[in-house]
Amino acid sequence: MRKPLLGVLSAVALSVAAFAGGTGTAVAASRPAAPAASPATATKAAVNFAGTVALSNCSGSLIRLPDSQPGDPGLVLTNGHCLESGFPAAGEVITDQPSSRTFTLLNASAGSAGTLRADRVLYSTMTDTDITLYHLNRSYAQIQQSTGIAPLTLSASHPVQGHRISVVSGYWKKIYNCAVDGFAYRLKEGDWTWKDSVRYTSGCEVIGGTSGSPVIDQSTGQVTAVNNTINESGERCTVDNPCEVDEQGAVTVRQNVGYAQETYLIPACFGAGNALDLDAAGCTLPKPAAARR
Q1: Per the CB 3.0–4.6 Å rule, which of 46, 218, 219, 220 could disulfide with 164?
Q2: How many percent of the chain have pLDDT more than 90?
Q3: How many domains, in total, are found in the chain?
C-alpha cells in the first residue's frame, strides 16, 4: 500500500438491460512514471474501461449493487486509503461525511465519458477491509442518459480461487490480467489489518495509482474485489510491504505479490434506494465506534 499521490498520506508517512448487466496499491507520494497501455486479453466476459473512474490520486468504479434500480443514486467504489481527507485510522469507520469530490468516468476505450460528482462519503474504512463508497448526486439512469455508461455490478459471491481476473485502473488507463492465487487469512500492513484478502498470481504487479481499481471476474464481468496493495521490497508488515498472517500467527512475506479486498460483503449492508444500513441482517462491515457501544 503506497502513499497516495498528491500527498494525501502526508499525515501518515511524511438503458435498463445494459444497467442490469453491467482497485491498487496505496499510491506513491511522487507521481510514478506512466506504464505502457495494456489492453485486456480475450475473456468470457469482455473486460474494458467502461464504468471505471479516475480520481485525483487513485482509481475506482461506478458500481451498482445486485438489487440497485436505475433511479437509485449512483455509487463510486475505491479504497479507504484514497479518501480525500486522508487515511482512516486503524479501527476508524467514517459514514455520511460531506464530499464534493469529482471523478472522470471512462468509456470502453478509456476515453472520458464525463464527470461524476459526489455529495457525500457514504462509508469509508481501512479496518478489516480497505474501501470507500461515495454517494453521487445523480442516479444511474441520469448518468447513463448523459454519458452512455452503465455501472459495473458488484458481485454478492465470494471470489473463487483460480478464476481469471482483470484489475482495471482508470487512473493509468491500464488493465492487468491474472488469476486469484488464493486468500490471505489476515493481511497486515503498518497499523492496518485486513481480513480474507485476495492474493494475485503473476501478471498483476500493480503500481501506485491503481489503488481502488475494480477487480473484475472475467467469467462473470462483475466486480469481485477492490485492488489495494503489493509488497514492494520484501519487508515484513510495513507500509508498502504487507505480510500474510495465518490462523496460527505465522507470518509470510511475498515480495512483488499484489492483493485486493473482497467486496461481496457490501451488498448485505444496503437497502432499497442504495441506502446504507449497517444494522441490516447479514451485514458484517465494521461499524463506527459509537454504533459498537
Answers
A1: 218
A2: 83
A3: 1
